[in-house]
Amino acid sequence: MRSxxxxxxxxxxxxxxxxxxxxxxLLAGCRTARAADEVVVHTAKGAAVVVAVELATTPETRxxxxxxxxxxxxxxxxxxxxxxxxxxxxxxxNTRIPLDILFIDExxxxxxxxxxxxxxxxxxxxxxxxxxFVLEVPGGFSAxxxxxxxxxxxxxxxxxTPVH
Length: 164
What we know:
- This protein is α+β, with helices and mostly antiparallel strands.
- About 25% of the residues lie in helices and about 35% in strands.
- The protein folds into two domains: about 1-30; about 30-160, Protein of unknown function DUF192 (Jelly Rolls, Sandwich), CATH 2.60.120.1140.
- The chain has helices at about 1-30, 60-65, 140-145; strands spanning about 35-40, 50-55, 75-90, 100-105, 110-115, 125-140, 150-155.
C-alpha cells in the first residue's frame, strides 16, 4: 500500500507541473501586449523620441486600449495596429488619464495629433485621414518633445506585426 500512495503522490506533482507548463506556453503564444517593443518618432527639428509600447492587435485589445488605467509612465504608450488602412475615431470613455493620440498613416507619418485629451470624454477624436496605426502616449508628452503632425514614425518590425 505504501508504495502505491508514494507513486500517486509523485505522479500528481509531475502532472501538475506538466499542466502548468502547458498553460504557460499557451499564454506566451497568445500574448498580444508586450512592453519591450519600441517606436521612434522623428520630429521636424531632428529629435528622435523613443516610446516603449504595448501592442493592441486584436479587436479586444484595441477596444480596451488604455481604459481603466490610473497612470502611464513617461516614455511609454500603446500602439494600435489595424488590419487595414481606414479612417479611425477614438474616444476617452473609461480612460482615467489624459492622452496624446497620434494617428499614423501607411507611410508612417503623423496625420493627426489630438493632444491632452479629456479623460472620460465621449467626444469623437477622428483621424481625419485613413490610418493603419495609432499611438497613445501620456497627455503633454508630444508638446514636451516637439512631436507634431507631419513627423515620421519608425515602427521597425512592428509595421508588419500580425493583427486580427
